[in-house]
Amino acid sequence: MEPNIFKYVWRHSRAEQLIILLLVAVSLPFYYLSLNLPKQIVNEGIQGQGFDQPGSTQPFLAADLPFGEEIFGRQVTLFGGFDLVQQDMLLALSFSFLALVMVNGMFKLVINTRKGRLGERLLRRLRFDLADRILRFPLPHLKRVKPSEMATMIKDEVEPLGGFTGDAFATPLFLGGQAATALLFIMVQSFWLGLVAAGVVAFQSYLIPRLRRRLLELGRERQLTARQLAGRIGEIIDGGIEVRAHDTTNFERADLVARLGRIFHIRFEIYQRKFFVKFINNLLAQLTPFMFYAGGGLLAISGRLDIGALVAVIAAYKDLPSPIKELIDWDQQRLDVQIKYEQVIDQFQPPQLIDPAREAPENDPGPPLKGEIVASALTLLDENALPVVRAASFAIGVTDHVAIVGSNDSGMDLLSYMLAGLVTPSSGTLRIDGSDIDRLPTAVTGRRIAYVGANAYHFAGTLRDNLLYGLKHRPLRAAKAGSGASAAELAEARRAGNPEFDIKADWIDYEAAGASGAEDITARLIEVLAVVELKSDVYRFGLTGTIDPLQHPDAAAGILRARAALLGRLRDSGNEELVVRFAEDSYNRNASVAENLLFGTPRVPAFASGALAKNPTVAAVLREEGLVDDLVGMGATIAKTMVEIFADLPPGHPFFEQFSFIGDDDLPEFSAIVGRVDKAGVAALDETARHLLLGLPFNYVEARHRLGLVDDAMAARLVKARQRLAERLERDSPAAVELYRADAYNAAASLQDNILFGRLAFGQAGAEQIIGDALAELLDDLGLRETVIKAGLDYNVGIGGGRLNSVQRQKLAIARALLKRPDILVVNEAVSVLDGSAQNRLLERILDLRRGQGVIWTLYRPEMAVLFDGILVMRDGRVVEQGSYEELTGRDSTFKELVAAE
Amino acid sequence: MSIDQEVEILRRIPIFAKIDPAKLKLMAFASERVTYKPGQMLFRQGERGDAAFIVLHGTADVLIDADNGLLRVASLSENEIIGEISILCDIPRTATVQAETELTTLRITSDLFLRMLMEFPEMGVEVMRVLAHRLEQTTAQLRQVQAAR
Q1: In this predicted model, what pLDDT tens digit does every residue of A795-835 receive, in sequence order?
Q2: Of A381-385, A502-506, B1-5, B132-136, which range is least confident?
Q3: Any chain A CB within 8 A of the CB of B35?
Q4: Residue B114 at interface with chain A, using a CB cutoff of 8 Å
Q5: Residues of the domain holding A574
Q6: How far apart are CA A380 and CA A424, in angstroms?
């Protein structure tokens, strides 16, 4: 990258900068005209200069050729003008003034808009360039940088650069021109006074930057310390477990305090110095008028300078300090952004960057790899230049299944990095199919070869997104009309030097996955999920997931068929009572009061069970049905029971969270309310207490909590309230709750809830298991398992795959690698989180699937190597043995020792 | 059956007889009432135990693995406690328990049961008494078996 921000700005915005300069130049005459016009209006238009007689006229808009006399010896009149009387002249001049104001305003608007656009474009370019460099960092360097520091740099630190670029060239020229003109004018009036003014200006522009030098240093420190603070905060979050586990929160606090203290001192010193410089600056600016008054006055008294000239000089000087000051400010800003720029790009200059040509989108993965992988004297040095892989030489077939065996520190993981093209060898060569791996475009290393490591990362999004991630190399088909990036957006990206990729286009390389398009890719996804034994997990995700029945009408219809069929199945197996179905006209004792009232799934938070007590619609219905007192009474009974059984438990006891309707914090308050109820009854309670009690019964489930609060009469009244609420909802807020309808799919509820259309009965032994099995069988029989799994593919895996467990994460990563059908699959420690038998099963299944295609697998359990065609044995960074399992176990070998040590 | 009725039943069980009703209510409230059909297993011999059961209604068979299938060694009925050995000693289930009739139990998780024992020593003494009584019975049975050989 350009080391100097001016070079960077000039290189990428030359044309635009010149246009802005031109616009500034063109605008200046209009600006001066508008300054001159008020004088003309006062003198001619109002005071009537040149209108000596009533009815006499003056020419308006008369124009002579400038310097006509000098060139042609006489005045050359270009336009004689219109002869106008005084009033007309006043109006004409006033309207001219208005027109000039408009013109000046328009110039300003256009220039500022262009400056702004230029600045934003350059900021966009710079941010992209920096982020692009991160994408091109070699992996060892990428591992060393702190993510949060990198993020602050791209996000915050380069931001002021965008604002500056618009002023980078135009401002100094404009202000400098202004100042020079004023100075020249003074010089013309009085050479000596001009010299004095020039001297002060020169001194000012010498002194101020020097005073500011320390400021710049401080600014640099401020930037560094702030960035380090961001890095530390990132570290505290990443290391959250360690911080808590070792009770070092106070140590971390101390660290933060120290850093903030340092930042405070830096910032305060900056503040102090800034105002000191301002003080000096103002003083110097006022020194010149002082000299004009004193020296110029003396000159005038002694008759060597006429008063008119002195007044003109002083008037002209008015125009001098402000451009000078702004110029000095600009210079300060220049130095500041230059430092920022240098500091930032310095962090983005690793010793090596991946050549962009290797990552070019038009690169082709070429024909399938064949032949051999040949390593000769392959060596890799670590950060301290110590060899971690030493002169490894071997040859294996591209389609072979090869195990790399060794201990933890044998360097086999690093060898696998090199084999996957992730790390460049320090010396020696690694050739695949005759080509040096570090020369191969990433289209080959990233598509023909797949790598799965330990702790594989998953991106926030759905399972499906993560599976397909490995197929998104370049946009293959334009987005559907209207949904993709517009031509204007792409053109703007081009102007900012960004590549014209459309994120909305279809990037998925279906062919590489063995599918023909979006229709049959899902079948492939399910296939690879089955290979890694993730299918049943995804099935479970699907059962608790939702689908949009408008987009998947067939799936919704299938689920409704399952709902109808389940009843019969349960009846046949004598398990009918395990599910208590929802019925419009009866109370479901296995569901909460809230659910019975709503008789539907809330779509908005205002109708969630915790919020019902405050919901005005629900409150109105309860009032109309005369249920408020009953619910408050139920709340009182619940509160009384809770107070009775939880009163003796210490606060914070786990039972509160597990079982109580009331948190330990609120217990004393409810205890007081219960006391008042015991004394004077529920009716005597104030509104606040009643409201608190009203909030309790909504989560009450009769069958589970068994307090006997909902008897048959109460159940009937609640069902009646349910019907009234349904009418009210339909009228007022039909979108707030998706009501249960026996014959309709409920888009807000999960697939499982849609099939059950009811609640599992509490207290029936093994109900969950029996129903789960019945569901699975039913879905298989109806051919709906795929539908459920498809819904499961939309499961959101969370940030970094956090909603999956570690086994699921690794399996998903392997599935992602298998999906793209690479010529060589490199697996490094990717299955170590699985238990032994699961590892064996997975290994066998993958090797079976990949018959005829290459697999390279690092193994910590050497006996598993029996399944592979060949084995590389590593020790201390060297490949010490190579051969088949039979060969290596048939003689004394390191491999045999490793197996024995197991 | 409401929670108050459950508490009444619990009070009829010797080990809970001397415990404050509020505590029994807590135990009942924090426990799940589980109903088994005739023939359904509560747990199998050798499984890890995570709960004890109190029979509220019905009878259950206690079976142990024998050479020729399961051998019925005891029958438990109302007000009796099942499966406490496994959660007290943290050992696998020593027998299989199966519902003989329709069986309603209160399922007390090991966590809850141990906590109750620790907080109410009188309950611990009662548990010891019941266990000792069982041991005595088992020893007597063993003697009979040996005598019969």
Answers
A1: 999 988 999 999 999 999 999 999 999 999 999 988 888 88
A2: B1-5
A3: yes
A4: no
A5: 546-582+745-793
A6: 8
